[in-house]
Automatic annotation (TrEMBL):
It comes from Microbacterium sufflavum. It catalyses: L-proline + NAD(+) = (S)-1-pyrroline-5-carboxylate + NADH + 2 H(+); L-proline + NADP(+) = (S)-1-pyrroline-5-carboxylate + NADPH + 2 H(+). This is Pyrroline-5-carboxylate reductase. Catalyzes the reduction of 1-pyrroline-5-carboxylate (PCA) to L-proline. It comes from the Bacteria. Keywords: Amino-acid biosynthesis, Cytoplasm, NADP, Oxidoreductase, Proline biosynthesis. The keyword Cytoplasm applies. InterPro entries: 6-PGluconate_DH-like_C_sf, NAD(P)-bd_dom_sf, P5C_Rdtase_cat_N, P5CR-like_CS, P5CR_dimer, Pyrroline-COOH_reductase. The gene is proC. One of its GO terms (molecular function) is pyrroline-5-carboxylate reductase activity. Pathway: Amino-acid biosynthesis; L-proline biosynthesis; L-proline from L-glutamate 5-semialdehyde: step 1/1.
Length: 279
């Protein structure tokens, strides 16, 4: 694999597109041909001013900015709101070259939508990053369109690995992936909220409760990462026979957490299918 990335264009460099752009820069991987980012307003465009190797375009000032951005880019990342994708694709289609790789960051927009507007020969990859990508601890799912080559996927994988881990899946699994890695951070934050409330209920101040709980979750995941152990094994090491943790874990297991999380993921998947159908 080459030690650099090819030229990149971020169309709609919002929170996720911007996170990936900054992740590429933070990784130190050179980008041959540079990076171009477009946003609708001068205010959003200004947030990328001064970043080395980045050309930031405000579409309010340069209406042809998207066409300019893609004309020199090998990888084009589409980060506009899902409802705006078809119009954007119609706008950029005449300016794409045969080897341009188009990467979707738009939730719920299918590969078929891209093929309908760009042609079946367009090399398209659908991605599903999550919010921890903003701190380079993300998980991104990638689903390749029929015309994307193995080299295309490897190149895009390398791009997303600058902001975390990458999993390649068929498009049929992208929605399911979103219920775990996409929605999953919210599940963790909810657990932190509830354990913090329990700590406050035991008499701790809110500040002490937050510090205790948040650092416990951060520390536990850091230990999991550093040890390489299975989480079940790490749980067993904390759970002394006939001890306090064993009693607490028994209560949690009696609450059928396995069933609860399965039902939560199923509910998220059902909603993803509704959204894809336009409901």
């Amino acid at each position: 694999m080459a030690d650099s990335l090819p030229s990149l264009a971020f169309l709609g460099a919002g929170s996720m597109g911007g996170a990936i752009l900054r992740g590429v820069l933070a990784s130190g991987v050179p980008v041959d041909g540079g990076i171009t980012a477009t946003n609708r307003t001068t205010e959003k465009a200004a947030s990328f001013d001064g970043l080395d190797g980045v050309t930031s375009i405000a579409l309010s000032e340069r209406p042809e900015g998207n066409a300019e951005a893609v004309s020199g880019a090998r990888i084009v990342l589409v980060g506009v709101k899902p409802a705006m994708v078809p119009e954007l694709l119609r706008e950029i289609a005449p300016h794409l070259t045969a080897d341009t790789i188009v990467v979707s960051l738009a939730a719920g927009v299918t590969l078929q939508t891209f093929a309908d507007h760009l042609g079946t020969g367009a090399r398209v990859i659908r991605s599903m990053p999550n919010t921890p990508s903003t701190v380079r601890k993300g998980v991104t799912g990638l689903a390749a369109g029929a015309a994307a080559t193995a080299d295309d996927v490897a190149l895009v994988r390398r791009l997303f690995e600058t902001v975390g881990a990458v999993i390649e899946v068929p498009e049929s699994q992208i929605d399911a992936l979103s219920t775990i890695s996409g929605s999953g951070p919210a599940y963790v934050f909810l657990l932190i909220e509830e354990v913090t409330t329990a700590a406050i209920g035991m008499g701790f101040t809110e500040a002490d409760a937050r510090l205790m709980v948040e650092q416990t979750f951060i520390g536990a995941t850091a230990l999991l990462d550093a040890s390489g152990e299975d989480p079940a094994e790490l749980r067993r090491r904390v759970t002394s026979p006939k001890g306090t943790t064993e009693r607490a874990v028994a209560v949690l297991q009696d609450a059928h957490l396995d069933r609860t999380f399965a039902e939560a993921a199923a509910a998220a998947l059902a909603r993803a299918k509704e959204l894809a159908a336009g409901a």
